[in-house]
UniProtKB/TrEMBL annotation:
Protein's UniProt name: DNA processing protein DprA
Parts of the chain that traverse the membrane: none
Recorded family membership: Belongs to the DprA/Smf family.
InterPro entries: DprA, DrpA_SLOG
Listed Polar residues bias regions: 1-10
Listed Pfam families: DNA_processg_A
Compositionally skewed regions (Low complexity) per UniProt: 13-23, 30-48
Amino acid sequence: MNSQSANTRHVLTPSVSSLSSPSSSWQAFSSLSSTSTPASPTTPPSGTIFAVRTPSEEILWAQLGYIANGPSSGMSALISTHGARETWDRLIHLSQQESEQDSCEHLASLVISALHKSVSEDTSRPSSASRPSTVSRSSAQLRANVVATAHTWYRRLLELLSFPADVLAMRLSANKRLHILYPAHPCWPAEKLERLLLPSCSSVMPICLWIEGDASLLIEPHISGIVGSRQMSDYGKRCTQEVTRACYNAGSVVITGGAFGVDAQANATALSMNQPSIAMMAGGLANPTPSANKPLFSEIVSTGGALVSEVPPYSVPFSSRFLERNRIIAALSDVLIVAQARYRSGALNTARWAEEMYRPVLAIPGNIDEPSNAGCNQLLRSQKATIVTDISDLSDFLSPTLSLNLSEPNPDAPTSEHAASRTDKHAPEPLSLEEEILHLTARQGKTVDELVSKLQPRYPAREVSQSMGLLEAQGHLIRLPTGKFVHAQHP
C-alpha cells in the first residue's frame, strides 16, 4: 500500500492537480494505433472531429470517466443534475464554442451550478455524489479551480472526438481486454459504493470502473479487504496467509490493493487455494503496476479473479491515486483486515476510510520492537480496530449470519412480585450490543448518532458503529435512503 500522507485522508476536490497532464495522457492514449496519430504527440490532433452524439451506454460512461480521469465531484454533480447522456451532449455543445476560453467559462458555470444544486439536495441519495466541502470555499477560489479543471476536460474531450467511434471503443477498452462498468450495469456494486456518500464519509462515487477478469466478483455477498505494508516480515506473511485462508473458508472473497507485501501475499494465497481474488489498482489497467507484479496479475485474471480501476486504461498511478484507490477498497469491503502495517502505511488510510463508512476494521497486533507492527498496534491502542489474536476472532465478521436471541417480548410473561424476586440463575441473559441495536431499530429507523447516544456510556461510539457495520454486512440491518438504519425484519 502507498505510504505517502497515510495519516491524512486524501481530499477529492475539482482541482486541476487531481488530473494527469493532457500531454502525457495523450501520448499514451494515441500510441495504441497507427491511425489518427497526431502530428505532434504532445497536443490533441486537429482536423476532423468525430462527434459521437449517441454512444452506447458503456462507451458513454467510459467517455465521461476518461474526461474526469479519476474521482471528480464536478463530473458527479453534472451527472447527478442532468444525467449521463445529457451531460455528454452539453459537453459536445460547449466544445463547439468560438474559443477554448469561452467553452471553459461556460463549462465552469455549469459545473458550479450543479455542485450547488447537488449539495442543496438530500446528500444521502445515491445521485448526490459531490462533497459538501467542495462548495464551502470562497466563490472566487472555487471558480478558479473549476475553470482550471474545465480546460483539462476540454482538451481531453477533443482527444476523444478526434477518433472514429470504432477506434475509440477499442482504445477505451484496451483493445477489448477490459469491461466497463457503470451504474446501470448488472455487476455495478451500487449498495457498497453508496457507502462513499455517507455523511460521515462525504466522498464521491467513481464515474465508472474498468475491469479485467470476472466483473461479477464485485457483487459477491461478502468481500473481505486485506491490506498492509509493502515491507512485510515473516510474521506478517504468516498472518496474511492465515487470515486469507480463513476468509475463503468462510465463503468470502478477498480484495487488496495489488501492491507489494501484504497485498500481493493475500492474492497469492488465494491463488494457492485456487480461489478468485480482486486487486484494486491505482493506475490504468493497460499497464498495471507495480510491473514486478504483472505475473501475479495475469494469474489473478486467468484463475477467475479481477483487476479493477476507476481511471482510464493508460492513466499513470501518481501518488494521490493510491489514496483515492483506498476509499474504493474500503467501500467494497464488508470487513477490513489490517494484517501488518508500519506507522505511516497507506493501509492506515484505508482503515480510516473504512471507519468512516462504518465497516468493521480488524488488526493483528505484533512485537512492539518491530517497526513493521507499529501501524496495527497504533490502531488497537487508539481503539480504531478490533484485535485479532486468533483466527477464531474472525468468525463473527466473516459468517453470513449471527446467532442472536431476537424474540419479541412475551406479553404473557409473569410480572408479579414473584417474578420480580426471581433468583439470578433464572434471570434472562443481558442483551449483547448487537441485540440491543436490533431491538432499538425494530420499530423505527435510527441514525448512527441516535444509537450512539442511547448506548453510551456503556459502549463507545467506535464499538457501536463497527457493530452496525457488521450487522449491515450480514443482512440484519438495512440503511434507508434517509440515512437511518432499520432492523431487516421490520423495514
